[in-house]
Input
Amino acid sequence: MSEISEMHGLFVVKMDISGYWCGMSSMKHPLDYTAMAEALEATGEYRVLRKLQTPTRYEPGEPEGLRRAIFLDVETTGLDATRHEIIELAMVPFTYAPDGRIIECGTPFQGLREPSLPIPAEITAITGIDDAMVAGHSIDPAEVARFVDGVDLVIAHNASFDRRFMETFCTAFTHLPWACSMSQVDWQAEGFEGLKLAWLAAGTGFFYDRHRALNDCHAGIELLARALPRSGTRGMAQLLARARAPSWRIWASGAPYDLKDALKARGYRWNGDGAGAQRAWFIDVPDHARDAEFRYLQDEIYGRVTDINCRRIDAYDRFSTRV
Output
């Protein structure tokens, strides 16, 4: 049962089940979608996702010590940077304060690129990019290098993927510091259950047209600009703190095969593609955890005191195949 009346040009429906009043438009007044969304959320029974708007300005003023970053995303024909190719590249420049406040976005770079082989059907299904869209298009590595000249930080969501492709495509990226919005923000501790960009966006309260490089960049910047739900810190501030801190890559060289499950359970990964220093199990740990990891390997894996193969890494080589 419901009760319908007209008030000031709005049709108002009172639902007997919940007692909730919902305003519907007549021809006299346009809908106030913001008020409707807020009313729905106020019931505690709904969550409303808002479409991402792409502001150029996030914070007022011009804080001292402003730095320049770019958020970067690539779409590719596959996952292997040694065999597959970039078909779309987007970079959104922005300024940020040392404390992590994102201030202002600049004019983005966006380009399509025709690969040497046809785009696989599964890639087109994901990205919407087909052979006709990229036909005759190219991206000049020299132009890309000029675009990133002088930036203080390159950010990607899954930087270990994007950095490999970009270092192969344009050598300028081998000399720049990188950070990862997926792994260098503790999303799980903030209550998020997934790390994909679209999942994080939905958990934050917005949606966007995903799987196109430029849209992914704007979504990533939006996530970093907002305060995290539990800690209250900005995502960018947390990312910067982790990017600035050195870490150690520790290799379990020559570890017995029958202990591989123990290594996996502890967080070690296998460098099976042959990229980087060697084919072996490895883990990245913060500076304060290095000695404890040495002791674990000596006691639980090797059963003796032995030299451990390790390397100190920072933002300039983190996520690169050169490590």
